[in-house]
Amino acid sequence: MRLANRPVYLASCAAAVLLGAVGCAPQDASLGGPHAAGQGKQSCDRGKPATVAAGKLTVGTDKPAYAPWFADDEPASGKGFESAVAYAVAGKLGYAKDAVAWQTVPFNNAFAPGEKKFDFDINQISISAARKQAVAFSSGYYHVRQAIVALKGAKTADAKSIADLKGARLGAQVGTTSLDIINDRIRPSHRPAVYQKNDFAKSALKNGQVDAIVIDLPTAFHITSAEVKDARIVGQFPVTGEGKEQFGLVLDRESRLTGCVTAAVDALRKDGTLAALEKKWLADATHVPVLK
Fold this sequence. Notes:
Elements: H1 7-18, E1 57-61, H2 81-92, E2 100-104, H3 107-110, E3 120-121, E4 135-143, E5 146-151, E6 170-173, H4 177-186, E7 193-195, H5 198-206, E8 212-216, H6 217-227, E9 231-236, E10 246-252, H7 258-270, H8 273-281
Parallel strand pairs: 1-2, 1-3, 6-7, 6-8
Antiparallel strand pairs: 4-10, 5-8, 5-9
């Protein structure tokens, strides 16, 4: 980032953030935003750049929309962490709640190559270099840990380490970092079961078709408290490597909104909104043991 040569730009952006608006876009071309193609500075005011539907901000997510990310399978309610984040980002971009339109987008379709019919998608999608080949991401709005869930009384439920999971029959949703954890970190002796949706993975756990499933930690809390009450969280996996796993908003690779959306997420992090929403909607993970 060549920041030293843009003092006027930075001052105007700082003022915009202090006013609670997003009037400037980041200069980092790697974001895939309005500066990635050398298009020059542009306003992030409502309607500039244009959205998929004039006067509206179209937000995509999968169906069913799972708790605690959404409440009662109703993304438009504003309840649940990701629903609340989506409306907070929309507000920073100048779109009131009634100007936000929701669209059903299957999980894998959100980051598949091709033109998008949404302005951004929010669906627990982890930022990765591989996915950036096909789509653009905002900066991260949530740091993620993965967890493993097993039925109470099962041998897997007593696992104390990753090595204890080697012989287990494990399952996860296709295309997720949860499945990556199984393949790359646990490396079980049995080929993992792969499901199109988390609902199918939960059913397999209930029916004894797998010994345990891997899923993000907040969803694991919801599953064990409200959906599969004879299941327990066995543990969470440690963060390794250079960076933490983060969920990001997904945009079309050529979207001119990417820089603006990133600036909105960054402003929400800076003013404490993201932390407040996380505290309100997501469970505290401090007491879950870390498997090593």
